[in-house]
Design a protein that fits this description.
Chains A, B: Its cofactor is Mg(2+). Chains A, B: It is an enzyme of class 3 (hydrolase). Chains A, B: It comes from Sphaerospermopsis reniformis. Chains A, B: Keywords: Cytoplasm, DNA damage, DNA recombination, DNA repair, DNA-binding, Endonuclease, Hydrolase, Magnesium, Metal-binding, Nuclease. The structure is a homodimer. By secondary structure, chain A is an alpha/beta fold. Chain A has a single domain (about 1-160), classed as Ribonuclease H-like superfamily/Ribonuclease H (Nucleotidyltransferase, domain 5, 2-Layer Sandwich). Helices cover about 45% and strands about 25% of the residues of chain A. Chain A is built from 5 helices and 5 strands. In chain A, strands 3-2-1-4-5 form a 5-stranded mixed beta sheet. In chain A, a hairpin with a 4-residue loop joins strand 1 and strand 2. Chain A starts with a strand and ends with a helix. The mean pLDDT of chain A is about 90. The interface between A and B is medium-sized, with 27 and 27 residues.
Chain lengths: ~160, ~160
């Protein structure tokens, strides 16, 4: 059985996305393998007013989901950093969640420490360790860029490991 | 010239709305008057998962705007209280802003101290003083309930005074 998982790293200026396929084979021993399908970012320009940036996110995420047809979405929970920034990211994340709701797409959410734990067995791993785990698990020769896309692949992998 | 202003008090469980008309008459002295048009709340149930609550907000705000046909929307800026709550409200506010963006509706934003200042001439006025000003300005016999609807009328009035 194959499952497509779309990982999302929420943001206002940049939303990272990373899609993987999870292949589960049921033999004597249940086995599974993951493969990279696509990754990249959705960007919105700070020249636009907020409501237009959110409308762009809405349209672009819908297009992305039309293209990738995921079975499951994995979306990162917000990490508290600076308050003003957190509010902007939360507003953008609300639009992403809306799209999942409108399309009745199943989704799972993970906080950063859960993602780190799933990929490195250490909840406080640093960015580089997580990215190396992403490369290893997906058998990649180069690190996906920008970081937001790599982060999105990490969220997708966390969902795959949980299934 | 008449202008319809829709005030919004963002939230996840409850979004307050309050619509007023602003009548500007141009005689020897420019004069204006405000009238209450409608007020109420949009509610989403905590029994629904987040993405469905946001989809409900999206649909209900679109219906409300279809009904009221505002010329301008005035939306309250987020006030920082508890972090977890602020994130939930910000996600909901993102959906409200998205609707404004999709409909290309002009909007203005005011922080709570700006609203208090506009209605009472005192940026740190308490809730009761602001509500009394709303009643006085709109010539109401009773306080609009719940508080979220009264707050939304206060935002709409702030926009009217600024015009």
């Amino acid at each position: 059985m194959e499952k497509r998982i779309l990982g999302l790293d929420p943001g206002l200026a940049i939303v990272g996305f990373g899609a993987i396929t999870l292949q589960q084979t049921q033999g004597k021993v249940q086995d599974f393998s993951v493969k990279m399908l696509d990754f990249g970012v959705i960007r919105t320009s700070s020249d636009m007013e907020m409501s237009q940036r959110l409308a762009t996110l809405f349209d672009d995420l819908n297009t992305l989901i039309d293209d990738l047809q995921p079975d499951l979405v994995a979306i990162e929970k917000l990490f508290f950093y600076r308050m003003a920034n957190t509010i902007l990211v939360a507003q953008a994340r609300g639009v992403l969640m809306l799209v999942l709701g409108q399309r009745k797409l199943p989704y799972v959410e993970f906080a950063p420490p859960q993602i780190k734990q799933a990929l490195t067995n250490y909840g406080k791993a640093d960015k580089e360790e997580v990215q190396e785990a992403v490369m290893r698990e997906l058998d990649l020769e180069e690190m996906p860029k920008p970081d937001d896309a790599a982060d999105a692949l990490a969220v997708a992998l966390t969902a795959a490991f949980q299934l």
